[in-house]
Amino acid sequence: MKDPESDDFGFSVSDGFLEKGVYVNMIRPEGPADRAGLKPYDRILQVNHVRTRDFDCCLAVPLITEAGDKLELVISRNPLAQQLNHEQDCLDQDQGLLISALQSNSREHHHYTTTTRAMDL
Question: Domain extents for the chain?
Answer without folding.
Answer: 11-92
